[in-house]
Amino acid sequence: WWDHVKPAPLDPINGVTEAFLADPSPDKINLGVGAYRDDEGKPVVLQCVREAEAKIVGCEFLESVSASVSSKLVEESVKLVYGNNSNVIKEGRFAGVQTLSGTGACHLFAEFQKRFYPESLIYLPDPTWSNHHNIWRDAHVPRRTFHYYNHNSKGLNFAALMDDIKNAPDGSFFLLHPCAHNPTGVDPTEDQWSEISHRFKVKNHFPFFDMAYQGFASGNLDIDAKAIRIFLEDGHVIGCAQSYAKNMGLYGHRVGCLSVLCSDSTQAVAIKSQLQQIARAMYSSPPVHGVLLVSTILSDPDIKSLWVREVQVMANRIRRKRAALRDSLEKLGSPINWEHVTNQVGMFCFSGLTPDHIDQLAREFHVYMTHDSRISSVISTPKGNASSLAFSSNES
Ligand code: LMR
Fold first, then answer.
1. What are the residue ranges of helices labelled H in 332-396?
2. Catalytic residue among 72, 226, 246, 272
3. CATH class of 49-302
4. Contacts with 389 (C-beta within 8 Å, 6 or more apart), sequence order
5. What is the 3-state secondary structure (H, E, C) of 36-62?
6. Burial grade of 171 (CB within 10 A; 0-12, 13-18, 19 or more)
7. Is residue 129 among the annotated active site residues?
């Protein structure tokens, strides 16, 4: 039956983890996957999660997630992206559903796009998170890329990006990273977002935001939602995928939200029912434990403010690690300009190392990173001993 099935190629991100795990060296270091770690290379459980856990103990009965818990998650999630006082929320002009983290939200949207705009394409930034390509490929939505990163300046290729928006057929779907762009760490400025939004308006493009790192760019959840708020003020119809994997450290719980703005609340009911129908065939209902944690954190004012502070602590620590890396490289006398390490924001640094460098680092020094030169600013070592690394800082 299965002789024709050949092994799938290694995933560009998970494949790095596999290579790291297979390396017997005690000194190996994983700069691959984007998962926040402490200075000992260990996963971090946020205090707000511990407090939410204490509150929900024994209350879930292991039933399927209830509509009220899912609705609470959606209600609180949309406030985070569109703002507490947003009219789209007051007027019920959005369709929102709980999803399997950001990946599930993107996939659900891709399936929805295919079902209701079967001829449409998706424009993805070049580069983007590698899984975006998998997701829209598997939903049978053809992909195009648009210019984003300038390899010479190690910043945004704004002029080329604007040209690509202009040259795409009217009414195209575009995926945008509203903050902490993965993998480059390069975000447009507020003025640039305004220009992008205006051009989208002229072209009647649909912006789909993948908000995987809210809080990780600036340390502030509202500032990191600024791009979306600009589009909102300009009256766009928007789609947004949210994930709590990074900013709540709930990687394994798969909690996310997909929201699609609508023209009125009647349309919202129709769209929500279609999204639920697609999800029903894929996985029936999402897992229950993580959503109880997230909805507890977001709806308890004390726990929420603890979370807001913890997000800021993580973002500040990442910033200090960037500064420490640049400082170490400069002190070591590297002739390369490393300004981009501190100019870029969020979890990732797009280092600019070549594939040969990256192979050599893995082979000779047991340092693992993705082949596009992305470095996760929070590292994982087998001994939990990160203190000797340039990318580690003693401050926490
Ligand atoms: C990453 O980019 O490393 C993260 O989003 C984790 C993943 O699943 O790829």
1. 339-343, 355-365
2. 246
3. alpha beta
4. 29, 379, 381
5. CECCCCCECCCHHHHHHHHHHCCCCCC
6. exposed
7. yes
Dihedral sign computed on CA atoms, order 351, 353, 354, 360: negative
Q: Point out the catalytic residue in the list 28, 72, 129, 372.
A: 129
Q: Is 210 a catalytic residue?
A: yes
Q: In the annotation, is 246 catalytic?
A: yes
- CA 251 / ligand 1 centre spacing (Å): 10
Instruction: Name the architecture of domain 14-45+314-376.
Output: Alpha-Beta Complex (3.90)
Pocket of ligand 1 (CB under 6 A): 13, 33-34, 129, 131, 182
Domain ranges in the chain are 14-45+314-376, 49-302
Going by alpha carbons, the residue nearest to atom 1 of ligand 1 is 34
Which of the listed residues 131, 253, 349, 373 should we mutate to test ligand 1's pocket, taking the one with most ligand atoms within 8 A of CB? 131
pLDDT tens for the chain, 396 residues: list them.
999 999 999 888 989 999 999 999 998 988 988 889 888 778 899 999 999 999 998 876 778 888 888 899 999 999 999 999 999 999 999 999 999 999 999 999 999 999 999 999 999 999 999 999 999 999 999 999 999 999 999 999 999 999 999 999 999 999 999 999 999 999 999 999 999 999 999 999 999 999 999 999 999 999 999 999 999 999 999 999 999 999 999 999 999 999 999 999 999 999 999 999 999 999 999 999 999 999 999 999 999 999 999 999 999 999 999 999 899 999 999 999 999 999 999 999 999 999 999 999 999 999 999 999 999 976 655 554 443 333 333 333
